[in-house]
Amino acid sequence: MTRSSDARTPLPAFQLGIILFIQAAEPITASVIFPFVNQFVLESGVTGGDERKVGYYAGIIGSLFFLSEFVTVLFWSRLSDRIGRKPVLLAGMVGLFVTILSAGLSKSYAAFALSRCIQGAFNGNVGVAKNVMVEITDSSNIADAFSFLPPVWTMGNTFGPLIGGELADPGSRWPGTFGKIPFFIEYPYFLPCATASFFALLCSILGALVLKETHPTKLAEKRQSNLAASRRDYGSINNESVEEYPAAEDTSSAADASSPSIRSVLIQPIVISLTTHAFQAVTMESFRTLLPLMLSTSIHLGGLALSSARIGTIMAIWGFCNGGFQLVFFARAIRKFGPKKTFGIAYGSYAICFALYPIMSYFAKRANGVDAKVICVLVVQLSCFVLGAMSYGSNQLFIIAAVPGQNSLATVNGLTQMVSSIMRSLAPSISSSLFSLSVEHNLLGGYLVYLIIVLTIMVGLYAASRLPDKIEGGR
């Protein structure tokens, strides 16, 4: 990333757009199964017809995805240092295309889980896209570039379930058309998976045609190759030009040295930034897990007893609002308040989100339903979460600024994604289990889970106080 203290550099809109388009494929293919995974588990027979076990087996599928991502993310990042960013990104897109298509053709629980597991492995190259974003920006416009990430992921996580919900079991939904095709009767979840896989395939084709390589070493090799070719063509030899780029052996050495050890990059600023990233990831994923759980739970157990359709509508509206807010206000907040203040305010707002759950439940119990007071509290809660989502982008800026050198970028981004993956694999099971325990044993009136998470956020805010007041090129 080129450092600049001058006026903001214009964003490379076309290349940034291609990278964001590729990024969108990952949340779409990851979330397309959410609306029908529980039904698939039940129909697969793995539960023996016991509906109470569905959540357990569905949770295993979700955990396998993120655990596979955790295991492979550093491999992809370091591989991109050796062979370049572009081939690794394209391999990931092709892998997503094949694996989500395979999931749609699965009949058994084991086959579906295996497909999901392999899909998570290919999804591990998500950190490589962030490397590209860093390499095509500088310190004057990187906040603007990263402000597009939350909207892209939000939109992907909105459209994925929308595709899965609308296109699942087309034979039953449209008996006059798809119902007459035996294939869609035999494979009821192929259509949504195929639609999502087509998007991944489109990304791979588009990337192959127009995405440019950004790795500095690979760019130097290309320039050196072009220079050598021009010398052969024109016979002009200039000693000064010969030394402008490293020799082939030196370039190879640079590539070998471009993947430093994990221990060498774990300097204090990186450790602090990764710690706050871990708190942010587990908090955000806990909220995403508890929101639909609380909204669907019976009122007397502390929920709102909303239907799946209403929950889907709420989450879709929330997703669009979140994406638009991040796009409009994130970069402005960074320039006005700086990354540290932005992170502190945003992450602190998560505490309000969780503290509002008991209040919302209290009003729902009094009204024995969802009245205007409950809706007002829900709107405030989701607004606070939209503000809290700014903590993701601001924390990314600290991580990038703390990278000790260009050759460490892929390793650090790989570590960041590993931390995110392991937190996202643990948060759903931990938060939902705490919710069940709190309700089942009436711990703190059934609200103990929210107190524990709020206290966790307080610890995260303490960790955030160790972040530097300014980052290079920032406030």
Automatic annotation (TrEMBL):
From the Swiss-Prot or TrEMBL record, state where the protein is found.
Membrane
The record, for Gene3D superfamilies, names:
MFS general substrate transporter like domains
Membrane protein topology class:
Multi-pass membrane protein
Q: Give the stretches traversing the membrane.
A: 54-76, 88-106, 189-211, 290-309, 345-364, 370-390, 443-465
Name any one GO molecular function: transmembrane transporter activity
Main subcellular location of this protein, as a coarse class: membrane
Q: Which keywords, in A-to-Z order, does the entry hold?
A: Membrane, Transmembrane, Transmembrane helix, Transport
Where would I find the Major facilitator superfamily (MFS) profile domain in this sequence?
Answer: 1-472
| Cellular component GO terms held in the UniProt record | membrane
The residues forming the signal peptide are: none
Which InterPro entries does its entry note? Answer: MFS (IPR011701), MFS_dom (IPR020846), MFS_trans_sf (IPR036259)
Name of this protein: Major facilitator superfamily (MFS) profile domain-containing protein
Q: Which organism is it from?
A: Pleurotus ostreatus (strain PC15) (Oyster mushroom)
